[in-house]
């Protein structure tokens, strides 16, 4: 029996019509090999545009069997819902500031490589 263990984590959001729609797919490795838990917030920040926040409201570990092909597919599905947070503007400013300081400007002009430590014999 072929077993497929999916390396993607699927983020689903319930739409106004009650149906689920895939909001995003993320590699498990990109999530630090950790599945977001209920109550976790996931924030998308787009530089110079804005911010969007979703909260995890459910998690499903799915094992799907297909008898016709005698195969199994295993995957994580995370249920999220959009949330409007009061501090969204402040959070966006903080993220943008840190991005500008630590990512966009990396390496810092005064950053020097540390020399390897010499060992005594």
Overview of the structural elements:
The chain is mainly beta and 121 residues long. The chain contains one helix and five strands, in the order βββββα. It has one helix at residues 88-104; strands at residues 3-14, 20-27, 41-46, 50-66, 71-83. It has a five-stranded mixed sheet, covered by helices on one side. A hairpin with a 5-residue loop joins strand 1 and strand 2 (20-27). The chain is elongated and about 55 Å long. The termini are far apart.
C-alpha Rg (nearest Å)? 21 Å
Structural class: mainly beta
Mean pLDDT: 83
Poorly predicted runs of 5 or more residues: 111-121
Overall 3D form = elongated
Listing every helix as H and every strand as E from the N terminus to the C terminus, the arrangement reads: EEEEEH
The termini sit apart by 57 Å
Q: In total, how many beta strands? A: 5
Biggest sheet, strands in spatial order? 2-1-5-4-3
* Helix run count: 1
- Let me know the largest β-sheet: 5 strands, mixed
């Amino acid at each position: 029996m072929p077993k497929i263990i999916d390396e993607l984590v699927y983020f689903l959001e319930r739409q106004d019509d009650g149906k689920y729609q895939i909001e995003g797919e993320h590699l498990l490795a990109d999530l630090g090999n950790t599945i977001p838990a209920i109550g976790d917030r996931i924030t998308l920040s787009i530089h110079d545009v804005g911010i969007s926040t979703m909260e995890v409201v459910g998690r499903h570990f799915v094992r799907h069997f297909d008898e016709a092909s005698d195969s199994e597919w295993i995957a994580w599905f995370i249920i999220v819902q959009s949330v409007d947070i009061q501090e969204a503007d402040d959070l966006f400013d903080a993220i943008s500031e840190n991005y500008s300081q630590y990512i966009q400007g990396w390496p810092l002009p005064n950053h020097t490589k540390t020399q390897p430590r010499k060992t005594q014999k």
